[in-house]
Design goal:
The protein has no helices and 11 strands. With 127 residues, the protein is mostly beta strands.
Length: 127
Amino acid sequence: QVQLVESGGGLVQAGGSLRLSCTASGNSGIAFSRYAMGWFRQAPGGAREFIGSIRLGNTYYADSVKGRYSISRENAKNSVYLQMNSLKPEDTAVYYCAAGSRLIVSSLNNWNAYDYWGQGTQVTVSS
């Protein structure tokens, strides 16, 4: 089993930045570096939305965040990061990280395809 814990959420003004972290623990028998890591968000009353993912050193982003968000990872720390810049009020949501060991590129934006989820961290952007 793998446990994921997100941190770094909070309240920020529009135009500001936040950096979310997601740290994995536990032992699934699979090295952290082999997991595709995804970030999703869910606004109140909305569906869970794909933000981006990192897999085998490649990153993929939703059009809504491309150019503003970036994903990186530190395998030695079992961690993945989401740097969010130029934040907008519509970015307000609970942000989740997820890990999947058998994902192909075409499934990275499908939250059902991931094996493990964090509990989420709230990001609120004020106007």
